[in-house]
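# step 3/5: fold
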Amino acid sequence: MKDSVREGFFATAMWWRIGYGVLRIILGLAVLKVVGTPVTDIVTSLMGHELIEDPNDLLYTLVHDFLVNHSPYITYFMSFYLLFWGAIDIGLSYNLLKHRLWAFPISFLLIGLFVMYEAVRFSHTHSLVLLWIIIVDIGILWIMWREYQKLKPASSS
């Protein structure tokens, strides 16, 4: 029973990463579609209902001030970043589900580097959402490590 529960957690984590990869690709395509449109116009459109209620909305003011000097090159970067990491997440997670051992070390490296980056960003932003993402990523790394340890001896014999 214990192995089936662990396998269930592993499969759920990998499907979560595949879904997250698909979401990144969708967001990357959406961002690519709006390249050339000033980001402040997009944010104003998305937050229009808030602005009607409170034209001096704090969130809008902060976001607007940050994005006033937003370059289209940053939009391209965001788009390709989302597309690239979405495809990587989907490809690696699929190969992990198929128990292809070569995918485990690559995934450990990439997710580990990303967790370190997230930790640095957290030290600057103190974002609780980012902290939650870090915790989820560490949990997924742990689940992957347990699965890799289970599979590794089987392939050595």
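# step 4/5: annotate
The two ends are 24 Å apart (CA to CA).
# step 5/5: archive (pending)
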